[in-house]
Amino acid sequence: MTNRNLILTAVAKNQPEYQEIPDIPAENNIETETLQSFKQVLSDIGGTALEAKDIAELKVLIQTFFPESSRKVSTMQILSDIVDTDLSSDFPHDFEDVDVAILEGHFGVAENGAVWITEDKMGQRILPFICQHLVLIIHKDEVCATMQQAYAKVGTADYGFGTFIAGPSKTADIEQSLVLGAHGPKSLLVLILS
Amino acid sequence: MKVGLFIPCYIDQFYPDAAIATLQLLQKLGVDVTYPLNQTCCGQPMANSGFEHLTAGCEALFIQNFADFDYIVSPSGSCTLHLKEHLHSDHAPKTALDIRTKLYELTEFLTDVLEVKTLLARFPHRVGMHQACHGQRGLKLSQMSELVAEPFSKPQYLLDMVDGIEMVELTRPDECCGFGGTFCVAEEAVSVKMGKDRIADHVSHGAEFITSTDISCLMHLEGLLKRNGSKVKVKYIAEILNAS
Amino acid sequence: MEKSKGTHAELAEQFNKDQSRVDWHDETLFWIRNKRDKAAGKIPEWEALREQASAIKNNVLSNLHTYLEDFEKRALKNGIQVHWAVDAAAHNQIVLDILKQHEITEMIKSKSMLTEECQLNEFLAVNGVDVIDTDLGERIVQLAKEPPSHIVLPCIHKKKEEIGELFYKHLGTAKGESDPQVLTAAARVHLRQAFITRRAALTGVNFAVAETGEFVVCTNEGNADMGAHLSEVHIAAMGIEKIIPERKHLGVFLRLLTRSATGQPITTYSSHFKKPRPGQQMHIILVDNGRSTQLGRPDFRNSLKCIRCGACMNTCPVYRRSGGHSYHNAISGPIGAILAPNLNMEKHTDLPFASTLCGSCTYVCPVKIDIHTQLYKWRQVIVKKGFADPAKAAAMKGMEFTLSSPARYRAAGKTGKWILKHVPVMVNNRLNAWYKHREMPAVPITSFRDWYIKNHKHD
After folding, report:
1. What is the pTM of this model?
2. Which residues cross the membrane (chain B) (predicted)?
């Protein structure tokens, strides 16, 4: 018998009587001040959230935050006048020297400061991880309260890769001292567009 | 209401004063309480060591001694919990299950059955409450810090009726003392360290006495306190609730 | 990898030789337990969430066969290659075969307790494959040639000065440097080199979704993503119990996982891998290694609900004061103590006894595993299977003989000696274990029974 059949046979034999999947209540605790708490939680976990009323202000913020950065890239064509938007490459390794990546997220989650982003918005899967600093852009109306709501928004979307990003890369493995910038971005800026 | 008093073996032998206080407190509150003379042990020391199959004798004896009471009250949360979870009988399965529902640890009997509202007791000392795990997490005598839930404490509700008592706050209000039955000898090093750490918490907050709903924890802590020449004493909760 | 030798009690005794270190270890972990309490306390529906997570996992265990088939079908459709491994050896061989196919002799790996369980690194080393662990904590214990001591905080037992010394030796940091900022920065440079140059990456799996054929990997550091997205070959290894029915159930588990683990609201990255990147190969290995056996043990099967948050370790007063290595098993602490006897009972007879049965583990567990009840039940199984120490078994029989008879109990009580030796604590044959650091209880003038007869007999 193959490993597959051995396992499946043993599991079928040993699994207990069927128990129903519970209903997951859509929401038991909807926060009203989602945007405010998103900003607060993100700041608590080492990120920064700022609001921008339009694209022009957003560009100013990016340039204020990263005036000297060597390589700034983005998947957003609208930013092509301030950053490099040509991300075509067969090799993810080509992005090793990216200083700042500016990507558009789908939405934010207030309870944990996370932003959901899928592959189609990344250009390259590696980009939000390999850059030194990450900027995520979400729309003001796209902030939900909890993770249950978040998955309701994700729904049955088909993606190759998607991730929730909550704050900069971090570690506390050495004596529980928090250090930002373990392997991924040392900082995360979330720009919230009105 | 006929109440049977279950005094676990080690309390009978080592802590008669705690048992006497329990009995007197119940009598003071007008309870018709009897101590069946042929009782021994709940069987927990064997069961917790993996020898549950050797407890049938103790269990038969327990059933024989206590089947006829309306309530069975004990000054030990741990022994009470063990019986409530495990008491069984091949000969009289229904009786065994019935007894489980009639078993009460002393403080919960006072708050839940007698619904005591006042006590005539005076104990003008600084006291630290050691939350015994089996009473707290097992019998739900008080809310545990692990859960996101409303706090409550049956023992504290009673201690608040005692005149002159001053309770001390602890840094870790419900950490295990490390007694753990045979754990205290099988894992001697960790057991002792846990006990020392519990004591340090009480001492650093100025406790003169450490009290608890379980005397086994207190026996362990007392052993450490005495060895280290500490002035801090242990006092079973009934001895405080019955103090004048 | 140097495995600890000795029983839990012996290793714990060694650990306790340095009391200030025990205090440091205990306080660090209790601080994390407190952070967990704070994070959970911010979620008013916390207890309802635990109940939901537990019920979802109960459903998974009752329908695992179907979910595994569903997952396989969808993963294949998504372009992921699916492998099945009955045991550790089969798992390790599959990894090696994949690497050989691509002529790869250097791999990077993010955190996977399963590969610790299978001792993959040791196997690959023998077969000429070099593995670099990329989680900082795991890299540190790897450099120290030690196993992780905690499933979430692999080097929680190590002081920063010791880590500084390791980095001085292996990564060329300055002698005496122990600042976590500086050491982490050095590791970042060192590991980036590995990420950039190595062609294969192995990751663990936190959740795999039957409905979609995707799997989720959670890290704070981003090391799983750095490895996976730069690699030609991504291998994900998972225990078969990691399946959950639907994507929306992630909403429940991701709310619980990191709050329980470290008190963070969520890990920095919760990455959903559904299809390989164009040009990349993605493999998933579904590993049994005793899990289907555990599934067949009604008293113990719900240990398979574990989502590896480590909350039971952080709260365990014994773990905090004995250290992870004292459990001599890949997974330590209370959860390790109920998982280990399933795989090898004889080797782990001591673990279910390394607990006071205080119950704290059961109530911090985000999926409501009745850990302390299972510890009690394993004790019964271990004794019944004949693994009890003969001296202890004899003592227990003696105790039963005395306590099952009121007359014998009274006779024993009169001499006062038997009871001191046997009831209820000194049954272990190391008679001096109590007395080493504790005074014996004073023998009173009279037993309660005698007092009662004298004072109440005629009431």
Report:
1. 0.96
2. none
